[in-house]
Each structure stands twice: as structure tokens, then as C-alpha cells.
Amino acid sequence: MFFANPRLQYPVRVDTPNPVFARALQQAIGGVEGEIRVMLQYLFQSWGSRGPMKYRDMLLNTGTEEIGHVEMLSTAVALNLEGAPLSFQEEMSKDPIAGAVLNGMNLRHILSTGMGATPENCNGVPFNASHVYASGNIVADMYANVAAESTGRVLATRLYNMTDDAGMKDMLSFLIARDTMHQQQWLAVIEELGGHTAALPVPNSFPQSEEKGEFAYGFFVHSADGSVPEGRWTSGPSLDGKGTFEAMISKPLGEIPQLAPARPDGGAQTEQTTTTPMPGGAPTAL
Amino acid sequence: MFFANPRLQYPVRVDTPNPVFARALQQAIGGVEGEIRVMLQYLFQSWGSRGPMKYRDMLLNTGTEEIGHVEMLSTAVALNLEGAPLSFQEEMSKDPIAGAVLNGMNLRHILSTGMGATPENCNGVPFNASHVYASGNIVADMYANVAAESTGRVLATRLYNMTDDAGMKDMLSFLIARDTMHQQQWLAVIEELGGHTAALPVPNSFPQSEEKGEFAYGFFVHSADGSVPEGRWTSGPSLDGKGTFEAMISKPLGEIPQLAPARPDGGAQTEQTTTTPMPGGAPTAL
Amino acid sequence: MFFANPRLQYPVRVDTPNPVFARALQQAIGGVEGEIRVMLQYLFQSWGSRGPMKYRDMLLNTGTEEIGHVEMLSTAVALNLEGAPLSFQEEMSKDPIAGAVLNGMNLRHILSTGMGATPENCNGVPFNASHVYASGNIVADMYANVAAESTGRVLATRLYNMTDDAGMKDMLSFLIARDTMHQQQWLAVIEELGGHTAALPVPNSFPQSEEKGEFAYGFFVHSADGSVPEGRWTSGPSLDGKGTFEAMISKPLGEIPQLAPARPDGGAQTEQTTTTPMPGGAPTAL
Amino acid sequence: MFFANPRLQYPVRVDTPNPVFARALQQAIGGVEGEIRVMLQYLFQSWGSRGPMKYRDMLLNTGTEEIGHVEMLSTAVALNLEGAPLSFQEEMSKDPIAGAVLNGMNLRHILSTGMGATPENCNGVPFNASHVYASGNIVADMYANVAAESTGRVLATRLYNMTDDAGMKDMLSFLIARDTMHQQQWLAVIEELGGHTAALPVPNSFPQSEEKGEFAYGFFVHSADGSVPEGRWTSGPSLDGKGTFEAMISKPLGEIPQLAPARPDGGAQTEQTTTTPMPGGAPTAL
Amino acid sequence: MFFANPRLQYPVRVDTPNPVFARALQQAIGGVEGEIRVMLQYLFQSWGSRGPMKYRDMLLNTGTEEIGHVEMLSTAVALNLEGAPLSFQEEMSKDPIAGAVLNGMNLRHILSTGMGATPENCNGVPFNASHVYASGNIVADMYANVAAESTGRVLATRLYNMTDDAGMKDMLSFLIARDTMHQQQWLAVIEELGGHTAALPVPNSFPQSEEKGEFAYGFFVHSADGSVPEGRWTSGPSLDGKGTFEAMISKPLGEIPQLAPARPDGGAQTEQTTTTPMPGGAPTAL
Amino acid sequence: MFFANPRLQYPVRVDTPNPVFARALQQAIGGVEGEIRVMLQYLFQSWGSRGPMKYRDMLLNTGTEEIGHVEMLSTAVALNLEGAPLSFQEEMSKDPIAGAVLNGMNLRHILSTGMGATPENCNGVPFNASHVYASGNIVADMYANVAAESTGRVLATRLYNMTDDAGMKDMLSFLIARDTMHQQQWLAVIEELGGHTAALPVPNSFPQSEEKGEFAYGFFVHSADGSVPEGRWTSGPSLDGKGTFEAMISKPLGEIPQLAPARPDGGAQTEQTTTTPMPGGAPTAL
Predict the structure, then answer these.
(1) How far is CA C258 from CA B97, C277, E54, E55, in A?
(2) Which of C118, D213, E82, E150 is the most buried (most CB within 10 A)?
């Protein structure tokens, strides 16, 4: 269960409110790189955790931290909206460049929330919980978390570079540091679990003898002329130490699929109830 | 630009059609762990690629491979639907256990596609392209790709274990092998780019001097009693070699936020146009 | 900021796991009547709160409580999935009625989470944060909260009646009681703000002299023959004491709208670039 | 069944078209506070109505009225788009402030509809019918309706304040009046059904003896230091007359949940197939 | 504006309620082939209609008809749910085949609506108004309408074939007939506007001299071996009489795109701030 | 299976980057009229194709072509973003009209992709695969394809008219030509299948004797006063040659639906567990 302290985890200060920056900040709240996503992701991973209890506990701690990050950013959005125009007339009276601020705002900040944040991204698209990855596999989840914190830190640095408000830069420099730690933290779990050789391929519980081993370490080339983009992934030992990389020209190993004709009572056109091969012959020649 | 061979990349065979397994397979087509997602993700990463051309090219190859995986799985769905019941009467006549197959089907396989696949997950939720991560940062993207292939291989092994159809097991053993390679492949890019020490924290282009360094390698403890889940992430050098892990009890560093009162013409209640502090005193004492 | 205790707010016990009830419980997690919704709704209302500070604080408390309800329900889902079948073969071996349990499960509980909860409803539709109502108007928000707790308690009682598992009934009897309180709590805010006469119409800050007063207390009858469904809303004083209810036969007061013809360079058909009145004459006669 | 009169319910007139206001108006069409939502909500409540027939009939009347409100607002959007620029060149030639109008438009008004409304909100997010609340419980539905009309009237007054177009203000003053009535109307149903004492808690058909009564009228305090936001909801009789409000410090009554370890064939990592307690001891001490 | 008659357009009778058929019927309410879609589509096309007034009027009539179809189907869902089980116990007591009906139900029919319809499809996915096509081009809209009525009639016949309930078959035979008419009706508009030669290509207002005419009537072959699927579309005059069909082997006419390197302050990795050509040489050779 | 050539199908050149036009172009990528939709639609139609093999093959060719169109447009978006401002300061320094470009941008082009395209529409709404129509009926699918290409060409001409960049106009003139062909191509399939008389009504496999023939060719008039919008669809032979058009005044043929009262254990209010007829009598009189 959870508790709250009405104080923020870190100070949130806006020196010069900027309603368009309020729109930008929404990406860090409700965007796919944002904080609602990691909050729910870490909590759901914790609540569904099977296996060693320490990971459930760690995830619970960091998930709880993230709730406070949503809180900080929501406060930052509200503070950036202080003094924003409520009408076209007001906008005009402030500034000869009519409508440039109002036009660039998320109008829901005026119309729907009365100058508060929404759980939406910078385009006003609501957060969709399908982005909460909790696979039941601890390594898959850690990689999902690293991905979330990597795109999250990229986003936070872009917001930092976008603004020249000292208060906002201060808040973001804190969130950027936390993202640094969180990237490390999830990778540290994988290291603790044995790193590449022990943890990969994910899931490591599936016997590799049951996969088609001849295709498990080959880079498939699909360029029409067979040219190969060479790199670490086309030669040398694989990272898990269980195979050797090679480049393989991809070729069709299967046939042209041919489904049964449609049933007369299945809603197709009558012409579909029989199958006609390709005119002029040999589709297998394709 | 793209070309197609009407033959499949690998044979798709169903020995005993199972319409409920057709529903399960949909997760591998339109689920967040599925193939439409990686197809679009790798292609969009390729098309937006900035920097060394070799990564654009590599991504294009693998994105193109994935289109063929969607094709294979869509074929597998259609083959699992051959002979499925179209009506309650038909269901009854086949099997004394009335309705158990029809009830368990994705009814859109009957009603909307006439026994074909949809770009949806196993619950019939349509694929949503917000799951296409293409951040413009090559390492963040690689981690997103590893996450996708890790959850993807987890899914494929679960499907493999769910069925006892030899044809389906054969197809899945191929897809599982490809997921093995793709996990390796994206990690190999990170290794080629210098691994943890060179690539982290993501983005490595942001000067770490501008982040709040004192919080960049600390695990924040949010348990109400300050108990600490110890692990690789609470002590020792950080993985990027740039800091030292420590556990830190999280405390509120900011104040209670207080927004301006609502404007009279802003749609709030009149009572909100003035701010009243907490009754009985000291919210700051919280 | 937030803290967590790894213990649950209230005991969660499942005597006989039922994977289909796990599916049903998802509605209380990620459904529109569920707990993720109220958790985010109360927190966002708190974070965007303008006016008296006490409401911010109250909302924060209850929003924090709700995080723990999501936790309880996620635990209940996982416990109901203990021992669920992972394959068709396993299902068959347990029970002569082949597939009846597996068919009725949310297959993502097997395929995507490894027997854990998802932030989705009972049909597997992910929670969408557009359901977080935080209007910036305290009374509108309170009514939204009452609506959420009313549909939430209806849902909880339906789940209570659906199961005969004593553990689940015990957990639900707690959640039902909390919903009782929460319904009361939000209505108590409205009472504190003066009830119907002071708070209505929402927003009470808009001067009623600027609305078309003659239509503000009339029930509009749209039945084709003008029959009137009589009730408290067709006669007597209005609840806010500011008007008198009456039934009014609705009639078109406006004209037939006629838009300008399409521009030749606007992507319409050429025929749309001129406006032709209705043939045979007088559309205004309609 | 339904009939239409091509004339509008109330005149819609735009004196000075404003394409950015057209974007704002979309919130009243396809936003969660908008008219498509109430139209479908009242109609679905009517069509699924069980119990006294008079409520079915009343809901049908008002649902039918709302169709006409969508029509009025769609007309208002189209009229605000008359003369809007179709190209960057055109925009430039009109106004030295290049792009300020075009930039602020919903580009779908140009690209997708040829200057007409869409069933989307002011950010172009399509209406999603999950917002149609029809719970089968008449009081829950009435509160959902009051919430919809309260946020709806808040929205309408914000639009009214945003514009200085006399035609638009006239139309909105009509819609605002209708929202006044609709707030009253749904509350009048609850009054007719006995008000707080008879109708609450919703559903009133569930025997309160089966809820955990000791938690049914207590305000749970989740602040980390136990401070209590006092109000009408912390003391005195409950609004339904069935209990007494009190403040209760929330404490964990449950245990730390411990799920079974993952199955070896369930797609987890091997390390998850055994459960390890917290290192260093006593997680129950948390 | 709109009016309602509480009687249905056509009788709705269910002889033997079938809760799983209730689930299937939802596809005709909230599915992409369903009636909410056409209702909103025709109404929005009408409300945004520019050009001859007769089309606005016709669309308004048929859009109004469709509201009544949603009403009929919602009634059919509710009637199919009469007597459905509310609990696992009840299910068991009725039928030795435990859970087969309950498992196959849309659980929201129990949990969320109390045995009523939802604006969702057969998988419980809510209707999303992005499916409302109203392009501002009368011929594009008519084709969208034909597509809607074609998939709609296919769906209705599949539902007809799925059930053996005489009442449901009667209702569906009416809806199927209406779909027949509506297919005809929209095609009749295109005929009235001159058919293929006058109306195509859509939009006919764009001067064809500005399109790359050499590619306007060629079927592009993308098979890897250049095999050509011959048909009416590979030779002979085009249907609009303005060109001649031919098959053309598709070849890349453009170059390999090369974007500028990433900016140092743009959130990419440092390695992306320079562009390296393909190793080993000539990407143009690809 | 699929292959790629890294060169583009047609040259993509941007003479003067315009970040707001980049936003507009997104509609052609991820909008409902855009290329991801047709790409997936034609591929899924191909993969689920039953009946004559030639249509599977044709659809595969054109679906493959469309992947390359997404690629071209994604390249065009990235090129239009070259040099776009990353910050408010940068924006200011370039142009006295502060913020007009940045405000009008899709901020995700800065924040989420680092100047690359997303699979979203011009409002940033992600592509949703429910727009992939693949009904299993070849004629219904062809009409869906014609609708897609008609709205697609309308969109492309609007983009063409919006820009004055010669490079962009050249690219669009190619895409417009391809849309011309694709409109023709799908209609040619219908002609090959016998045109209106053989193909309609869709599906032609359903015996028309089972539809209510008396309503199959009547235009239903729903105007409140019975006025009739006359046209090709109100008299003369139907297009399929199987009926005669006529106008019919729509009247309610069904009764007022009356559902069973709510069950006491079903979550309704107690008052709903009995049904009360309309007060004052005769609802059938309505």
C-alpha cells in the first residue's frame, strides 16, 4: 500500500511561464517515453513478480518514485500555464503577433482542465496502458525498462535544450540524473543474473535444442541484390557465446500458400468458392 | 523500395486446425510483442536514420525480413481456421460439448474476415502504431529492439508450448531462432558502439556535467520504513564506469505546490477563485 | 512524493483459483469503472487543484489509497491464475470438457504476462487515460468522482455476486465498503460548498444572465407525436431554486444550414463547386 | 426510430470566421465533455433501460435532442472554416504574420474534410465510445450524466469566453442553458428516487450487511505523517444517514504478497522458477 | 434537428436468448462494419456537405434511418441476454458443461451494463470515430459508403447464417435488405454524377496534366522475378476512358536517401553526428 | 517473403524545408487516408485471399508497392525537418515572429524522433490497424480499396495545393498518378467479376430470397414532414437490374421494446426490479 507526502520530491520552479512549453512537457507525462508509463510498468512488474522477492521489492521502490515524477511534471505544466490567455481578445491585447501563443497551445489546457496537466502526450493523445510491459520474464522486463529510460532520458535532454528557463532546467537536470541511474539499475539486474552468457537468449528457460539452430546466429540479407551491411553482427562469436555470427542471403524456403476456397455460406462472393490457379500457369515458378 | 516473392520465407503447415490457437497466434501478429510492431519499428528506424549509413541498411534488411514473418503468421492463422464452425448449429452437430470451440474463437475471424487473420492481438485489440519506437538515438532504439525481441521470443516459446501441432511447432522453432539472432544483433550494435562505457548514459551526447550528479548513481528507497532491497545496484562501480552505486533514502526536497487561484472567467467554481490554506494550520509541517 | 509499504492494504486470499474470474477482475483494474482510472483521476485533480488547499490534500489522500487498490486487485488476478493451464494438452488432461477453461481465459494472461495482471479491462482493452476527468472545476470533478464510485461499486457488487470464493468475497466486501465511503465523500464536498443552490449550475462562476434563460429549465420533448414523459423534471421548482421546470415541445428555431460551395482547389468534385438548391423547390418548406 | 428536420434546433451564425476557433469547437463535438458522448450515452441508457418505462422515454427524448446539438456544432465548425487558407502561399499573401493561422489549425480540416467538422476533439483525437456510460443502474447513470453535463457546461462557458463573435456567443448561450437544464434533470431523477437516503450507496440493491461496515464511512488518511485534511467528510452523519464520518489512519492490514514461482515452461527466466526471500532477512519486517 | 418515436423501425424478437450471439451482434453495433459507424458517417457527410443541397438532404435521411438500426440491434443484444447467468454457481447449476456459456460471453454484458448493449464490437473494442469518413468529396464519400454497406451486408449475412433463431433471422433479413438498398443508393449518386468517365479519377477537380501521366494507368509489378498477374487491369482502356492499362516492371527511380547527420544537441548519440558511408564502398551499387 | 532495394521508388527532393509541411505530410503516412493503411490493407487482403489465386498475387504486388510509398513520405518528412528549430531561443533568433514555426510543429518531431517521421497522422494520432479492411469478400474489399484510394488521392492533391516546393510537388505528382491507377485497378476487378449486375448486392452468395425483398430497393424517407430528396435512387431500375427504386415514407413497424426488469442481484437499483408502464397510460399510443 502507498503513502504520500504533499511536498514534492524535488523543487519545481518556473521563472517565465511558457504555455507552449507546457504542451511540450506533456510528452514527459503521458508520452510513450514518459513517466506514467514507467510508473505503471514498474508497479505492474512488481505486482506480478514471480521468483526472487528482491526484484519485486526493488521494482516497487522505483515504481513509487515515478509517481512523484508524474506529480512534479504535472506541477510544472500548471506553472507554465499561469497567465496563459483564455481568449483570442486577450491574446491580441498582449501581443501584436496575434494568436501565436494561443495557436500553439494544447487547447485542452484551456478548455478541459482550466490550466492543469492531462495524462496525455504533447499532441493531446491520451496515455494508453498497452505500453505497460510486464512480461513475467525478468530479463525481458529489464530490457523494456532500459528502453523506457533511454528514450526517457533522450526526451528529457531535448526538453532541457528546448527551454532557457532556469527553473525548468534545474528540475530537468534532476530528472535526467534519475534516468541515468535507472538505466544503470536495470542493466545491473541483468549483470547480477549473469549477463549476456547466462541471460540470453531470453527466455533462457527454453531449450535451445528446440529452436532451428541453423538460423539462430545468421544475419538474413534481404537486399534485392544481396549486398551485405557488415558489422559486429555478421562475423565472430555471438554475444551469448553460444554461436557464430554469419551473413546469410535470405531465400524463400516455403511454398506459395493456398487457402481452401471460401464456403458458400461464409459471406464471400460466389466466385471465391472455387480456387483458380494463376492464369498462364505456374505460380510455383514465381 | 520493396519486392515480394509469393513463396513464404519458411514453410507453414498446420496438421490439425485449431481455431482457438488461431486466436492465440494473433498476439504474434498484432500484439505489442508481435511482428507488425517490429516490422514498422525497424523500417521507421531505418527511414529516419541519421549518422552512419550502415545502420540504416542493416535496419532495412531486418525490417524487410519481418514483413515476411507477418505473412507467415497470417497464413498460420488462416490455416488454423480451416473447417471452423460458422454457426451454433454446426458447432452442436460436431461435438456434444456445445459451443466450446465457437465460444473460444475470436468471432471476428468468422464475422469480419471470413477465416483470415486481422492486424490485432489475441483479444482483438487492433495494433496501435504508438508502439513503433524510433527515437532518433541509435542506442535507445537498439534497447527498444532488444526489448521487442525478448518479449517476442518469450511469446513465441509460450505459443510453442501451448500447441502440440507438429507443423506449428516447426514454424515457431524457426521464428524462435530468428528472435535469438535479433536479440544478439541489436546488442552487437551497442557493443560495436563501445558498450556500456561508451554508450551510456543514453544519450551520450548530453554533457553529464549538466545533470544533478549527486542523484545519478543512487538507488532511491521509497519504502515507508526505509528498508533497502540490496543488489548489484546498491553498491560498487556503476556499469558505465562513471559513478558508484549507493542506496539513498528518498526525502522530499521540494515544497507543497500551490497554484494560483482560478480565474473568475476560467470555468471553475467561484469558491476556487481564492486560495485558502489548510484549515487548522500547517501544511508545510507535512 | 510517495512511499510504499510492501504489505497490502487489506488481505487478498484466493481459495480456489479461477482463471476466468481473473479475466473478470481485470474490469476492476483497467475498466472504465476500475481503479487505475480513479487513482489517476484523483491524483490529477489534486495536482491541478486551484483554490482552497484542503481539497488538494484530500484528493491526494484518496488517490494514494487507490494505488493500493490496483495493487490488491493485481494480486488477486495473479492468485486466480495459479495453476491455470498453459497448453491445450494440459487442459485436456485435466478435464473431459476440453478447452472450456482455456477458451474462456484472457490469453494474454498466458502469452503476455506469464500469469499476471495487465492494465486492461475484462476484454483485454488497455486502459485509456482519456477517462481521467480533471476539469479544473471542483464540483464538476466531484460529480465525475461520484459517477466513478457509483459505477465502481456496481461493478464490485457484480463481481461479488459472480464468485463463490470466500477469499475473493472478503476482499470485495472491503472494496465495496470503500466505494460506499468514496461516494459519500465526494458528495460531502458538494454539500460543504453549499449543495444544489450554491453549486449549481456548474460552473457557478458563469453569470446566468448570459445564458438563454428561457431554455434553462425546460424539458425538451423530441417524441415525434409530442407525448411527454412526466416526472420531477417537468414541473415544480428546479433543484437549484433558480427556475421552474416545464415541458416544452422542441421545434426547429434555426434554418437549414447552407455552406459555401467547395473551392475548385479544395479537393472536392467539380460538381460541388456550385450550390444547387433542392430540386422542386423550397427546402425552407421542410 | 428517428426522424429529422433539416432545420437546426437553434440558429447558428458566425460573423467572423476563425479557423482556430473551429479547432476549439471540436472539443464540444468529439471531446469527452462533448455532445457525441452525451448523445450516445443517453441513447444507450435508454435502449438498455430496465425498470420503470418513464426513464427509458425521458432518456430517449434528451438523447434525441443531443443529436441536434452535434449538428449545430458541426455547422459552427464548417462556418468558422469559410475562407480559411488552403496553402502556405495563400496564408502569406493575406497576412504579414506568416503561418500563424494555418499553423494553429487542425490540418485535418484542410486535408481530410475539406472544411468540415470531424468527430474528434480539439487535438484531433477521435471520439472513443468507451466514454459512453450505461451501467444498467439508473442512479449511477444519472450521476454519470450530471458529470457529463457539468464538464460540458464548463467547456461551453470556456468557449463562450474564448470568442468575441456575437453569433457564436448566441449559439453557446443556448447550449449553456440546455446544459443547465440537463444538470437539473438528471438530479431530479435522483430526487424522485428518494435522494441521498434512498438511493445511496449505489447500488442500493446490495445488502450493506455484506460490505465491511467498519470501513464504509471512514476517510482513510494516507499522508506519510498522518496529517488529516478535515472537512464535511471527516465527522458528522454521512449523507445517506446510515453512518458517521470519521478519519482513520490507513495501515496495511494485509501481508506481503508472494506468488508461486514461475513454471519452467512458462516463458520466464530459469532464475524465476524458484522463490528466494529477501536477502538479509525479514521482508515481513517492512 | 431530430425526433424519435419510441417504437422500433422493424420488430425485434428473440425466441431463444443466446448470450454468445449477443456478443456476436455487437459487431453490427460497434464494429467497423457496423451501424454506429454508418450513422455517424452519413450524418457528418450531410452536416459538412458543400455543393448541391440534394445530397445533404439524402444523407440526412439515411443517417437518421441508421440511428434506428443501432436501436434495433441494441434491443436485440439486450433480449439475447435475458436469463443469462450472473455467476459461476448459476452457470454450473444449469448445465453440466460448466462455464461454457459464461466463458463465451462478453463479461461486460454482466459487469458493466447489467445485460445491455455497449457501443463496442464483438471483442469489446469500443467504437472509434476515426472510422467516420467524410472527406468533403462527394464521390470519395460515396465509395466509402458503398464499402461500409458492402462489409455491413457481408457481416449481416454471416450473423444470419450463425443463428437459427427465427426472430433474429427475421430482423436480420430486414437489415440485409436495407444494406442492399444502401449499396445501390450510393452507387446511384455516382451514376447521377456521370459514372466512371465523369467522376474518375477522384477528385475530378484536380487537373490531370499535373500528375505524372506516364504512371497513371500502369500496373506496377513488384514480384521479385517480374512475373505479372494479368487481368482487366493490365491491358485495354482504363475504366475512365482516359488511358490504357499496361503492366510495368517497377524499378527504383530515386536514390538512396541520405539525411543530414544528427545535431549534437538533438538527443542522438555522438556517433550519429557524423555520417559515414557504407563500409567497403558503393551503396549506390545496391 | 520480401526484399528491399535501398533506393527509393521515385526521387524525393525538398527545396525549402518546411517543418509545418512535415506535420501535414504525416497525414499521408499514418492518417486514415494514408499509406500505412493501404499497405497493410492490401497485404492482409492478399494473405487471407480465398478463391482465384490471381487476386492474391495482384494484391501482393500493390501492397508491396505501398511499403515504398510509406518510405518515400517518411523521407519527405525528415527532409522537411532539416534545419528546424530545437528550442524557443533558436526560433526567436531566426525570426521576429516568435514561435510561429515551432508552435505549428508536431513537437514529437523534435522530442520523440529527432527529426524523423512517425506512424501517426497530422495531429499526432497513431495509426490504428482497425482501419485495415480485409473482409474475405473480394468485392467488398475492392470497394474499400477504391474508397481508400479516392480519399488518398483527395489528400494528395490537397497536399500538392498546400505547398509551393517544386520538389514536393514533383513527388506528389507521382503519388497522385499512382492513386489514379489504383482507383482504376480495383474497379477493374469488379468489372472483371461482372460489374454491377453480377457482383451486387455484396455478398452475391447470399440468396436474395432470404432478405425482406419489399425493402431492398426503397429509399426510406425520414424527414419529419415526409419531404423526399429525389434523385437517381428514387425511381427507375436499380443498378443491379434486380429491382426498381422507389421512395418510401419510413414508419415504425415494430413496437416499443420492453426489457425484463433488472434482477435483484444484478447491480441495478431496487426500483428497477419492477417494470412500471408509462404514467398516464398508453405508450403504444406514441
Answers:
(1) 60, 9, 11, 12
(2) E150
Instruction: Scan for cell 448541391, then name that residue.
Output: E52
Assess: ipTM above 0.90.
yes
Probe site for chain E from A161, A169, A172, A232 (most E CB atoms < 10 A): A161
* Cβ contact, residue pair C269, E88, below 8 Å: no
**pLDDT number for residue C280:** 54
Nearest to B265 among D161, D265, D279 (CB): D161
Pairing of strands F246-249, F218-221: parallel
pLDDT, average across residues A22-30: 98
Q: Which residue of F has its CA nearest to E126?
A: F130
Q: Do the Cβ atoms of E165 and E120 come closer than 8 Å?
A: no
C-alpha B253/C-alpha D87 separation (Å) is: 50
Fold of F19-196: Ferritin (1.20.1260)
Q: What is d(CA F208, CA E176) in angstroms, rounded to the nearest whole number?
A: 9
How close F194 gets to chain B, by Cα (Å)?
A: 22
Say how many C-beta atoms besides its own lie within 10 A of residue C216's C-beta. 23
This prediction's pTM: 0.96
Distance (Å, rounded) from C-alpha C59 to C-alpha D231? 12
For E172-218, the pLDDT digits (tens) are 999 999 999 999 999 999 999 999 999 999 999 999 999 999 999 99
Between the alpha carbon of residue F134 and those of residues B71, E151, F48, F49, F130, the distances in Å are 14, 9, 8, 9, 10
Q: Which residues contact F255 (CB under 8 A, 6 or more apart)?
A: E7, E8, E11, F284
Q: What is the DSSP string of E176-245?
A: HHHHHHHHHHHHHHHHHTTHHHHHPSSSTTS-GGGS-GGGSSEEEE-BTT-----STTTSSB-TTSS-B-
pLDDT band for F283, please (50, 70, 90 cuts). very low
User: Which of E65-102 are b and which e, b meaning 16 or more Cβ less than 10 Å from the residue's Cβ?
Assistant: bbbbbbbbbbbbbbbbbeebbbbbebbeeeeebbbbbb
- How close D161 comes to chain B (CA, Å)? 7
Subunits touching A (CB < 8 Å, at least 3 pairs)?
B, C, D, E, F
What is the per-residue burial (b if ≥16 Cβ within 10 Å, else e) of E184-198?
bbbbbbbbbbeebeb
- Please name the chains neighbouring D, where neighbouring means 3+ C-beta pairs under 8 angstroms: A, B, C, E, F
What are F3's strand-pairing partners? B3
Q: D162-179 pLDDT, tens per residue?
A: 999 999 999 999 999 999
Residues in chain C predicted with pLDDT less than 50, given as ranges, are: 98, 281-286
Residue E196 grid coordinates: 466512371
Calpha distance B224→B218 (Å, rounded): 18
CA distance B203 to E269: 5
Nearest to A158 among E224, E267, E280 (CB): E267
Give the span between the Cα atoms of E47 and B18, in whole angstroms.
Answer: 47
Sign of the alpha-carbon torsion through B40, C120, E158, E151 = negative
| Torsion angles phi and psi, residue F166, rounded to 5 | -60, -40
Q: What are the extents of the domains in chain F? A: 19-196, 207-253
Does residue E125 contact residue B124 with C-beta atoms inside 8 Å?
yes
Cell numbers describing residue C266: 479544395
CA distance F98 to F89: 9
- For residue C192, count other CB atoms closer than 10 A to its CB: 18
The three three-digit cell numbers of residue B186, written as one number: 541489436
3-state helix, strand, coil in chain F (%, to 5): 50, 5, 45
